[in-house]
Each structure stands twice: as structure tokens, then as C-alpha cells.
Amino acid sequence: MKQYHQYINEPWKKLLFWGLLLLLVVFLLFVVGGLIGYSISSNQSAFNFLNPDSWNHVFSFIR
């Protein structure tokens, strides 16, 4: 059985792999942190963090 690193032995493949992995981890941490923060700071369900109306309310402050 080959190890995964034998498939990504070229430098650009390693960079692409670690870059995509980093983006995935950052995205997951953003979602988990948002769910936790929204549930602590409001009396509503944590999953309202994913509701488009919540995001429209946040972006209304920026505009």
C-alpha cells in the first residue's frame, strides 16, 4: 500500500494539497466558531447562524 505522500511528490502538488487542506480547516473553524458564538450571544438556535436572514442583518451594518 502506497503512502499518500508518494502521490504528491512534486512541489506544486504539495503546495496545492496543503493550501486546500488549510482552506478547509479555516472554513470549518469559521462555521464551528460562528455556531458557538451565535448560540452564546443570542437566545436563538445556533443553527440560525446559517440562516440567510441573519447574514443580511450583519451585512446591513457594513453598507
Q: Note poorly predicted spans.
A: none
Structural class: mainly alpha
Strand count, sense and barrel status of the largest sheet are:
none
Overall geometry: elongated
Number of domains: 1
Question: What's the number of extended β-strand segments?
Answer: 0
The N- and C-terminal alpha carbons lie at a distance of 55 Å
Order of helices and strands: HH
Count of helix runs: 2
Radius of gyration: 18 Å
Return the average pLDDT rounded to an integer.
Answer: 87
Fraction in beta strands = under 5%
State the helicity in percent bands: 55-70%
Can you summarize this structure?
Helix content is 67%, strand content 0%. The protein contains two helices and no strands.
Q: Which tags fit this structure?
A:
single chain; 63 residues; 2 helices; 0% strand; mainly alpha
